[in-house]
Write a structure and sequence with these properties.
By secondary structure, the chain is mainly alpha-helical. It has three domains: 97 residues, no CATH class; 95 residues, DNA polymerase, domain 1, CATH 1.10.150; 182 residues, Intergrase catalytic core (hpI Integrase, Chain A), CATH 1.10.443. Helices cover 56% and strands 3% of the residues. A three-stranded antiparallel beta sheet has the order 1-2-3, with no helix packed on it. β2 and β3 form a beta hairpin. The chain starts with a helix and ends in an 11-residue tail after the last helix. Pfam families: Phage_int_SAM_1 (PF02899), Phage_integrase (PF00589). This is Tyrosine-type recombinase/integrase. Keywords: Chromosome partition, DNA integration, DNA recombination, DNA-binding.
């Protein structure tokens, strides 16, 4: 008998007369197959029984909405006490009902959801934007359109003064000049798209102004290499989370990988026998092969062999708690940021990109050319790499001895 069947035999009470038994069993099977613990499944089972005995028998046809679920949760809170009981019932109930396609969305749906979905498809299918760009720009557009709704502004009647008002009200004291420029680019692209479909006034895109940015006006925000080494020493433990984080940090610091590239890394891209790491660089949109450095190979092997959850997912890095699913780029950022905070390293940015900058600065200190550094980082042009040439030479001399293979 399979492990899942055994777990569910242990889960089921001797007699289960609650409604929707088959629907509850399928949902618990789904989580069991993704590595949920027996304790977690028991909690879900009890919450599902509570919900199933209180929703309308016609739920498969009429659906269940948030108000009905809140009443069920409030009843549970009266019995168990505490806000946690309410949150668990709502969270479990909503997930279960969505799994069954019984969830009834609130009547008030965001009015521009369709336009955002169509724009995302256009960016992906027509323009071929990278996934990371699509995610960021979609978030910028959604935030802007929510502001329009709050201000009672219609997309079709937007004027230049409205665009100015958005930046004045939102950017002041919060966005840097670079952020303003990036947000302007995203909005200008969306407005041009909307103009072409007749859903906003012609010429409005030209009214989206951005501050002028000068080449190499900002310095790299790399942490000192000694700080990177201390971060790697901190995660050189037997703790499962540290084992995973060490593999991630080494990929960021040694190969200068972007967070999205680490999240997308698959098991079949690691050639253990040939000692080759095959990456797909997001900006170049083409594969690159690198020597699999010993310290990185050992960290990856230790993670895969001892910590990585069992899963059919091809991605290397997976969530360690159910439901088991691949990491997203944001998860990689949080891994790096958590280590910066733990070490008290004070830099402008504390995500994975800071370690990418550290990699570039280290290579520059070792005397590699801009072209060589750009190739290593997967840059599409030397312009993207030239920023690293501005690091103070005196600081570079302090970190002269460099060997990627000697990382702790």
């Amino acid at each position: 008998m399979s492990q899942i069947s055994i777990s569910h035999r242990d889960l089921r009470p001797s007699k289960d007369d609650a409604p929707f038994a088959e629907e509850r069993r399928r949902y618990l099977d789904y989580f069991a197959q993704r590595g949920a613990s027996l304790v977690s499944l028991r909690f879900k089972r009890n919450e599902l029984i509570w919900i199933a005995t209180r929703i309308h028998p016609n739920a498969p046809f009429s659906g269940v909405g948030i108000e009905e679920l809140r009443k069920i949760a409030a009843e549970r809170q009266q019995v168990c006490g505490g806000r946690e009981a309410t949150q668990r019932i709502i969270g479990t109930g909503k997930a279960w009902l969505k799994f069954l396609l019984w969830w009834r969305e609130p009547a008030a749906v965001f009015k521009y959801s369709r336009q955002i979905d169509e724009y995302v498809r256009w960016m992906r299918d027509e323009r071929g934007f990278s996934l990371s760009t699509i995610e960021v720009w979609a978030r910028v557009i959604r935030r802007f359109l929510h502001w329009c709704v709050q201000q009672d502004l219609e997309l079709v009647t937007l004027r230049a003064k409205d665009m100015d008002a958005y930046f004045v009200s939102q950017a002041s004291g919060r966005w840097s000049r670079v952020s303003v420029a990036n947000i302007s680019a995203a909005l200008r692209s969306f407005i041009r798209y909307a103009e072409g479909r007749g859903i906003c006034a012609q010429g409005l895109a030209e009214a989206v102004c951005a501050p002028r940015l000068y080449k190499q006006e900002t310095l790299p925000y790399a942490p000192a290499w000694s700080d990177v080494q201390r971060m790697l020493e901190d995660v050189d433990t037997d703790n499962p989370q540290d084992i995973r984080d060490r593999a991630i940090l080494l990929l960021l610091a040694v190969y200068g990988m972007r967070s999205g590239e680490v999240a997308a890394l698959r098991l079949d891209q690691i050639d253990w026998a040939g000692k080759v790491l095959r990456l797909f660089r997001l900006k170049r949109r083409q594969p690159q092969s690198y020597p699999l450095i010993l310290s990185v190979a050992e960290a990856l092997a230790r993670y895969v062999d001892t910590v990585r959850p069992r899963s059919s997912c091809p991605e290397v890095f997976l969530c360690m708690q159910a439901p088991i699913r691949p990491f997203k780029a944001g998860s990689i950022y949080h891994v790096a940021n958590r280590r910066f905070v733990a070490r008290g390293i004070n830099v402008a940015h504390r995500g994975g990109h800071a370690l990418r900058h550290a990699c570039a600065s280290r290579l520059l200190a070792e005397g590699l050319s801009i072209k060589e550094i750009g190739d290593h980082l997967g840059h599409s042009s030397a312009t993207s790499t030239s920023i690293y040439a501005k690091v103070e030479l005196a600081a570079l001399r302090q970190i002269a001895a460099f060997d990627l293979g000697d990382l702790p």
